[in-house]
Amino acid sequence: DIQMTQSPSSVSASVGDRVTITCRASQSLTDWIAWYQQKPGKAPKVLIYSVPSSQGGVPSRFSASGSGTDFTLTISSLQPEDFATYYCQQAIFFPLTFGGGTKVEIK
Amino acid sequence: QVQLIQSGAEVKKPGASVKVSCKASGYTFIDYYLHWVRQAPGQGLEWLGWINPKRDGTIYAERFQGRVTMTRDTSISTAYMQMTNLRSDDTAVYYCARCSSCPLGNYDMDVWGQGTTVTVSS
């Protein structure tokens, strides 16, 4: 199975901060990766699919980059509604697998 | 709007089976594959498999082969996930999620159901 190593597992940040989350795959994904945001008690919501394309309606402060095995999700200016857990997912090999998650907390 | 509405919470005993439903609306049901994903309490996301509603084809994660069955009823735009021989570590929230571009690559999940909590306890 493809291992998706996500870091950091948690980050404390303030409103307005720039936050970067990384995801490393155990083998090349070309650009077949998706990013999700999950708030407590809610289903995940897709932010980015097929780097660097963003889902319609997702604020422009969310961006993604990378290819091969190394990917990043960047929140350029953290807003109060962005405090959540973020997951990467490799979107090409079976079984589909997710990173362990990054919890973005208020500093 | 596009929605996936799942069935309600279930409590089962070890060894029992559970069947979760996922009703689609706002789009043509047979045009999009559906994934099933679960999340144990306080844990990350785990993919169980997918179903092609048009051709009734399925792919399961190997670790669930033989224990999970995904089906659909196109007449009511509903997909189902049945898991047998439940264990306590199957306690989780189970989600259905639509695949935006399957099977052409990028097997992402663009619309999610609200989740169904399955609790396995004696």
* Percent of residues in beta strands of chain A: over 45%
Strand content of chain B: over 45%
Shape of chain B: globular
The coarse overall form of chain A would be globular
Order of helices and strands of chain A: EEEEEEEEEE
Rg over C-alpha atoms of chain B, rounded to the nearest angstrom? 14 Å
The string of secondary-structure elements of chain B, in order, is EEEEEEEEEEE
- Round the Cα radius of gyration of chain A to an integer and report it: 13 Å
Range of helix content of chain A: under 10%
Query: Largest interface, counted with CB-CB under 8 A?
Result: A-B, 22 and 24 residues
Number of strands of chain A: 10
Largest sheet of chain A: 6 strands, mixed
Q: Biggest β-sheet of chain B: count, sense, barrel?
A: 7 strands, mixed
- Low-confidence stretches of chain B are none
Distance between the termini of chain A: 35 Å
Outline:
Chain A has no helices and 10 strands. Chain A has 107 residues and is mainly β.
General description of the model:
The complex is a heterodimer of chains A (107) and B (122). By secondary structure, chain A is mainly β. Chain A has no helices and 10 strands. In chain A, strand 6 (62-67) and strand 7 form a beta hairpin. Chain A is globular. Chain A starts with a strand and ends with a strand. The model of chain A has no long low-confidence stretch (mean pLDDT 93). In chain B, the strands form 2 sheets. In chain B, strands 2, 4, 5, 6, 9, 10 and 11 form a 7-stranded mixed beta sheet that branches. In chain B, strands 1-3-8-7 form a 4-stranded antiparallel beta sheet, with no helix packed on it. Classes of the chains: A mainly beta (107), B mainly beta (122).
